[in-house]
Task: inverse folding
């Protein structure tokens, strides 16, 4: 156990538990093995916590959650009412809630054992990273209860060779930026992509208040589109800061399921690769795009049986044709959040919460 601890490689809690079990077995102490396997779970957890604390380590999530406003419920109700009323006034045909989510070429676990006090937590993976990953625009559509064909942003040179190679790919919009993050230009490309999917329709588009989503360039582009009454009309609405984990459909119902589906395909693919000592693992852009599309297809197939995407719009208060059942689902969602321990802790600290086990 000491060897694996001192090698410097970060461990997941599961790996740590395995290392402890291996150490117990090597000691060949039957009483210790029996206690480990059949003893009280809390006893083992407390032992691990004491060992970690003694060595200034803790179990950490790789990412942190965003802060939530103190008056989150009032703001959530005001935001959703504003959006519903705007879409009713605009007489939209299509309601879309879009959100960017980041995917690594080589996904890590959600938790690591790391030195206490470090602000950033990560791992070292022997893998070619293609600039680490890509941003995927997940757009949920209410009436069809489905995820639309995505836009995927890789790191690269905008307008260069790679962009040309992907220009005619018809299963998704694939673009390249100097970084994989969303920009005003990328937002305009995405809105154009949506209008090509729904020619002549009136689209209600909801996304968060990232600066690239409502920059002058984006708003001017939307205005120009709407001046031509014969083409697709865009009614653009923004979710205020801190409310995305509360009333944003992808955050509430989809992103976790989507990332889990992509991760499953990654590990299935990786298990089929030959293992060569000293050789890095490699996942191509094409392979990552395939993982994304397969994951979306899986979620859409699930929604043929159980329309949980449409249900999430009702739960988040974003159904512009709301009836009693929709508003009841929204109220129940907000009520459940008020009793949520993590949310209460975030409100108490009024800062992004570092989750420690």
Result:
């Amino acid at each position: 156990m000491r060897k694996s601890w001192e090698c410097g490689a970060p461990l997941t809690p599961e790996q740590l538990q395995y290392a402890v079990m291996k150490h117990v077995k090597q000691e060949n102490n039957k009483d210790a093995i029996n206690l480990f396997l059949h003893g009280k779970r809390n006893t083992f957890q407390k032992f691990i916590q004491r060992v970690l604390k003694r060595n200034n380590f803790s179990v950490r999530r790789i990412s942190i959650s965003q802060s939530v406003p103190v008056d989150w419920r009032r703001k959530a109700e005001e935001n959703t009412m504003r959006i519903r009323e705007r879409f009713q006034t605009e007489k939209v045909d299509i309601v879309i809630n879009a959100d960017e989510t980041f995917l690594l070429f080589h996904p890590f676990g959600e938790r690591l054992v790391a030195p206490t006090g470090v602000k950033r937590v990560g791992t070292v993976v022997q893998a070619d990273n293609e600039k680490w990953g890509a941003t995927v625009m997940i757009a949920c559509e209410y009436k069809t209860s489905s995820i639309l064909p995505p836009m995927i942003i890789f790191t690269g040179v905008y307008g260069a060779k790679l962009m040309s190679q992907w220009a005619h790919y018809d299963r998704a919009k694939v673009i390249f930026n100097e970084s994989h993050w969303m920009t005003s230009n990328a937002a305009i490309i995405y809105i154009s992509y949506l209008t090509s999917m729904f020619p002549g329709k009136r689209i209600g588009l909801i996304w968060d208040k990232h600066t690239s989503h409502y920059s002058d360039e984006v708003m001017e582009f939307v205005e120009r589109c709407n001046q031509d009454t014969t083409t697709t009309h865009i009614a653009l609405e923004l979710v205020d800061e801190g409310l995305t984990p509360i009333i944003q459909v992808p955050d509430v119902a989809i992103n976790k399921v989507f990332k889990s589906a992509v991760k499953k395909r990654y590990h299935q693919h990786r298990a089929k690769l030959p293992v060569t000592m000293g050789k890095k693992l490699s996942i191509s852009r094409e392979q990552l795009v395939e993982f994304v599309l397969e994951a979306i297809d899986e979620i859409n197939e699930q929604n043929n049986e159980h329309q949980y995407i449409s249900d999430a719009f009702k739960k988040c208060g974003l159904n512009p044709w709301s009836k009693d059942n929709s508003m009841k689902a929204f109220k129940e969602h907000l009520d459940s959040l008020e009793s949520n321990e993590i949310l209460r802790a975030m409100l108490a600290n009024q800062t992004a919460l570092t989750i420690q086990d």
Q: What stands out?
A: The mean pLDDT is 81.
